[in-house]
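Quick check before the chapter quiz. The format below is the same one you will see on the exam, so make sure you can read both the input and the output lines.
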Amino acid sequence: MSRTSPSRRSAPGAARPARLRADGARFRAVVTDVDGTLTDADRRLDPLAFDCVRRLEGRGIPVVLATGNVLPITLALHRFLGLSGPIVAENGGVVCRRSGGRERVERLADRAIALRAYRAVRRAGLPVERLFTDRWRESEVALEPSVPIRSIRRALRSSGLAVEAIGTGFATHLMEAGAGKLPGLERALAPLGLAPADCVVLGDGDNDVGILRAAGFGVSFPSASPRARAAARYVTRAEFGRGFVEGLKASGILDRPPFSEEGSRCS
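Here is the expected output.
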């Protein structure tokens, strides 16, 4: 995660034109990243965010997790939080939704391509190491962020493989070109009759840029990457759980009753 001075919104001219809606009640879902958004810098779940997502769900607003993390971890968090929205895992490479009383999983990227890219980077002499959780990945390869991403991208260009390297601050992800959180989110929302423009989206990494730009209301954070901040409609003053709640307030989605009538930390 990048650390920068807080800003109320993105730098002038950096963000895309805002698609503000006067009535926050028109937003129909919340989409959130996990690491650094629902959690603090040490990846501990923030109780403020926990309280808020439970209240959103209790009022019929589905919460969608859109993360670079693996499906087993994300599904566990989804269940423990009591969420009803679909899951976008592995940066959009895996989509999971419940239908007919069971989880249905779609893979939107080819892991074999990512594995070939990993081997090409190793052959180029870069000392990259896969994350412990990479053993559970189904659509990409995730590396420890110990090697500069520019060196990895240079090696990939030389390999000729159609693969992208995306840095999140927590890892470097190798993924088939064309895949990502935005196509994954669009696929996940379609059965609900929703699009990203119907959602409040919160994220802090380069892998969130696409969904922040496509959102009805995009929220990022002071510690977010410069590209994520530029893509967001609103950059919070607070970090982590407090920033999560601040961003939702700014979107107007918490203004609808009964949020505005309850003495909640989320209101």
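If your answer matched, good. Residues 1-22 have pLDDT under 50 and may be disordered.
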